[in-house]
Amino acid sequence: MNELILFGDVEDAARIFLEEELVSVPVSVTIPPTRPDAFVVVFGVGRSRRDLVTESVMLRADCYSTSESAAHDLSQRVRALLRTLPSQTISTLIVYRHQELSGPVMAPDEVSNQAMYTQTAVIDVRCKSTERMA
């Protein structure tokens, strides 16, 4: 018999985590149809399996606000929060490791001209579950 190793929704877990920590700033996995003054979009841009039960997920966090200064400050807060992920369990996912690939950099949104900073990190998570195949 073989086992299926299943991984969880890391993007949604990151969204839930950031939303709980940021409280007054909406966090989503896509740009909301009606843009608030400040918000964060977190989404996966790549993933690979490190070993039998560990997945590495590359996450991008885009932080939008009404000014460059406010977007910068929000991005630094998100950066600090992402660094706290290792050893936490979020939405049933156990986070093992965080590695920053690119710290916050200014990248104004070309569609709306809204101030935006973007950053990229890799987090390693344990599989969500295993199932035996018949």
Describe it.
There is one protein chain. The protein has 134 residues and is of the alpha+beta class. The chain has a single domain (3-132), classed as STM4215-like. The chain contains 2 helices and 8 strands. It has helices at residues 10-22, 68-82, and strands at 3-6, 27-28, 39-51, 54-65, 89-90, 93-106, 115-126, 129-132. A 6-stranded mixed sheet has the order 2-3-4-7-6-5. Strands 1-8 form a two-stranded antiparallel sheet. Strand 6 and strand 7 form a beta hairpin. The model has no long low-confidence stretch (mean pLDDT 91).
Features:
47% strand; 134 residues; alpha+beta; single chain; 2 helices
Count of β-strands:
8
> Mean pLDDT, nearest integer?
91
> What is the CATH architecture annotation?
2-Layer Sandwich
Number of domains: 1
**Largest sheet data:** 6 strands, mixed
**Overall geometry:** elongated
Task: Outline the low-pLDDT stretches.
Answer: none
Order of helices and strands: EHEEEHEEEE
Count helical runs: 2
First CA to last CA: what distance? 6 Å
- Quote the CATH topology: STM4215-like
- What portion of residues is helical? 10-25%
Give the spatial strand order of the biggest sheet: 2-3-4-7-6-5
Strand content: over 45%
- Report the C-alpha radius of gyration, rounded: 16 Å
Oligomer: single chain
